[in-house]
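Something for you to look into today, if you have time. Could you write out one complete protein record for me, on any chain you like? The space below this message is yours for that.
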Amino acid sequence: MPELPEVETVRTGLDAALKGSKIAGVTLRRADLRIPFPENMAARLAGKTIESIRRRAKYLLFDLGGGDVLIAHLGMSGRFSVVPKFSKKLGTHDHVVITLTDGRALIYNDPRRFGLMTIAQSSELTSHPLFAALGPEPLEKEFSTAYLKLELTRRNTAVKVALMDQALVVGVGNIYASEALFLAGIDPNIPAKTVADRAKPIIAVIRKVLTDAIESGGSSLRDFMHVSGESGYFQHRFNVYGREGKPCFSCGEPVRSTRLSGRSTFFCPHCQK
């Protein structure tokens, strides 16, 4: 599943391509994705101007004129493409087509249909069911040392599991949690409360791996593509993720893997204590 850097990369591309564009019409080629489309979705979007595109956790937020927000999630395999000259030739998995008044089209393709699209009022987002239980953004000031120290103190789960809890902090998925804990020198298996005093360096490495990934264009999971159609390439810079049995870049010991909450977890037993 695309993680925060992938979604941020898509957001940046979409915002640059679509900001200020006016929606001419919307074609929904099925009734739902992961959840049903809202009633009158096509009519509600038609004629609106895309004022900006933001991100909350792994959700894309299209701010529209009049206070409406189109909420989109890529799921496992969702992909947006901006088509310069829309010819109406569509693929099997092109489920949503948003045509623009300048002749372009924004096409949402999703073979597995685990993504979603819905609409809400901007004033309702904080209390919206999709966002109400989410923690702070990892790159924002609300994700502070005092906050993380308190939250870790309360948790006896493995520290990696705690950092992947979207109620604690959003967007620190499996790949980047493994990478951050390697940089922090912390064994991902130890209880979160035992490293509460290390909250400050944990925040620093989380921000580093996410920022590096965003600058590099995100990690290239099997189905992840930029808006431009190019794969990301941060995967070439992984220290431990996906490197089981290979020598640690720092000490030469073989990288190990285990499973935490059903997810593969990679770490160096020598460098991470």
In short: Residues 39 and 176 are 37 Å apart (CA to CA). Confidence is low (pLDDT under 50) at residues 220-224.
